[in-house]
Amino acid sequence: MMKNNIILIPTDFSEVCDNAIRHGVELAKVLNYQVTLLHVIDKATLSNLKKEQLGPAAIDEKLASIAATYKQGNDLVINWIAREGNIFDTIPKVAGEIEAEIMVLGTHGKVGLQHIMGSFAYKVVTSSPCPTIIVQNRSFEHGYKDIVFPIQEIDYVRQKVQWTIKVAKTFNATIHLYIIDTKNEELKSKFNIVTNQIKQIFDLHNVKHTVNFSEGSANFTKQVIKYASSVRADLLMIMSNNDLFDFKIAPDEEKLIFNDSEIPVLCINPRELYIYSMVL
User: Structure pTM?
Assistant: First the structure.
């Protein structure tokens, strides 16, 4: 599917979603993308509107006000959509309709959009037709200068390469390949092959990178977060669950997405595609 230069930012008007909007707007300015704000009018929204004796038009007015605020002094296109439905179906559907290239989703620890916690937030991510950046309270600051690229599996890992190159070249970033160490010689050989292939592609595209290994395979996720914190990483690149129909979040993925260092995480859903034809 061809994508438009659009960043989709769902919001329930909470503080954490306000930070996601700030993050997404700054990213849009760097990439010269448009922004589309989305509010899903669900049962909770309708209940709040009823309590305040307001109609659905109030949602459009609020979105318009937010857009106007961020457009001040910026040559930036910000559109908005208010759509009745539920967040799990509506957010991915809208992302597909507008052919968003990326989505920015706000979360505070395990709590994100209203009523989204833990595996529910992950369900939105894995249903999305585009990559999703999950942000907590951390601001965009200087962008993504140091990016950690964990390698702990063989399947689909190359699919992170396309977006990694795009982000790295945009921000002149350094990619930190962080590879799981294993005593299994066959598996270690496969990791070396994949790592060398990725390095070759990075070299071809003049992407700065380092190669680092974990201390054994135990607690790899914990080691990734520790390493990312040590290099003051601005972004973690991960693949979501390989089973596109299983929305249960694994403990390791949960720790990465909701890391205590509040490092933004770019989640990419696995797809059957030819990655090399897209990046070479």
Answer: 0.87
Q: How many helices (H) and strands (E) does the chain have?
A: 10, 10
The answer on 179 and 130 residing in a single domain is no
Q: How do residues 119-138 score in pLDDT, each as one tens digit?
A: 566 778 888 899 999 998 88
Count how many domains the chain has: 2
**Contact present, 200 and 280 (Cβ < 8 Å):** no
- Residue 140 inside a domain? The answer is no
d(CA 13, CA 113): 9
Q: Vertex 132, ends 156 and 222: CA angle to 5°? A: 65
Question: Do residues 77 and 193 both lie within one domain?
Answer: no
Domain that holds residue 235: 146-279
User: Closest Cα partner for 79 from 130, 110, 38?
Assistant: 38
Structural domain includes residue 141: no
Among residues 136, 156, 151, 124, the alpha carbon closest in space to that of 234 is found at: 136
Any bridge partners for residue 126, and if so which?
none
CATH number of the domain that 71 lies in?
3.40.50.620
CB 251 within 8 A of CB 241: no
Taking only the tens place, the pLDDT of each residue in 49-95 is: 888 888 888 999 999 999 999 998 888 999 999 999 988 899 999 99
**SS3 state of residue 167:** helix
> 181 is written with which tokens?
């160490």
What are the backbone angles phi and psi of residue 208, rounded to the nearest 5°? -65, 140
Query: What are 51's two structure tokens?
Result: 């309590």
